[in-house]
Structure prediction request, 67 residues.
Amino acid sequence: MEGMNRIVGSMLYMAPEILENLRPYNEKCDIWSVGIVCYIMLTGCIPYTEREKEELKKFIIAGKYDK
Prediction:
C-alpha cells in the first residue's frame, strides 16, 4: 500500500505523525483518531483544550493531554 501524504481533517483527531509532516504516513494514524473518539466517549470531554492551533499542535506532538 502506498503511503498517504495529504493533511486533511480536524487537528484534534490527527496523529502526531501527520502534524509533524512525516510523510508518507499510513492507515495506522487512523488508530490514533479512533483513540481520541474513544477518549471523548468514555470521559465526556476532549483531551486537549488549547484554542490556538500551534499550541494544540505542540501538545499533540508531545503527547500531553489535559486529563
